[in-house]
Design a protein that fits this description.
The protein is an alpha/beta fold and 210 residues long. The longest helix has 17 residues.
Length: 210
């Protein structure tokens, strides 16, 4: 399965299920957001994070505007990056997270929080540190590693995004073996039959299991 397919699958579920994603990955933020207003996918406001034009952006980038129940801060931006493979640019992952953070902050002019979702068998990188002749930068961001998720807990978690993560970890455990993938797909299909999720949500979750 190609990295582009996996990246596109994650971008799709993040865009279509932002409420569920924030509740699962960032419960503190979810508790403070204004549910009377929609979370916005900042397609047009998205900062240009690579050289060139918007079409040069990585397929897995997603940036959201989240309204808050706060008199002083009415909205924050959430920048999400998903990483599945240890590609040739992985050693610069933390630096890219930092660059995307400050460019988003400069472009959008609202507070920004960042989230990195690691969906493959790769190590978690949660900070960027730089020191230069008395000047020091330490940038830490939110992370989630699918490979450390508890399968049994996810099976019993009623939140839709928990099942998204379950689909991803089952695919990871299959390790490309067709027989295992079919077995895990049946497990996932059984869970989805029992859940009262919208049909579109079920379809999106099923795509993550291949």
């Amino acid at each position: 399965m190609s990295d582009k397919w996996i990246d596109q699958g994650w971008k799709s579920i993040l865009i279509k299920m932002p409420d569920e994603a924030i509740e699962f990955f960032l419960p503190d933020l979810a508790a403070k957001r204004d549910r009377s207003q929609k979370i916005l996918f900042l397609r047009d406001e998205h900062p240009v994070i690579n050289s060139g034009t918007d079409k040069d952006m990585r397929v897995s980038d997603a940036c959201f505007g989240i309204p808050l129940l706060n008199d002083k801060i009415q909205r924050v931006a959430l920048y999400v990056e998903q990483q599945h493979w240890r590609d040739e640019n992985f050693e610069n992952f933390a630096l890219r997270m930092f660059e995307w953070y400050y460019r988003a902050s400069d472009r959008l002019r609202v507070p920004v929080t960042s989230l990195a979702i690691f969906t493959g068998n790769i190590e978690e990188v949660d900070s960027y540190h730089e020191v230069c002749f008395g000047t020091e930068v330490l940038f830490k961001y939110n992370t989630y590693s699918v490979r450390y998720a508890d399968v049994e807990e996810l099976k019993h978690d009623k939140r839709a995004f928990a099942i998204c993560v379950l689909a991803a970890i089952l695919m990871l455990k299959a390790d490309g073996l067709a027989e295992k993938r079919e077995e895990y797909a049946r497990v996932l299909a059984g869970i989805l039959r029992e859940r009262d999720y919208p049909s579109e949500t079920k379809y999106i979750i099923a795509t993550l299991s291949g």
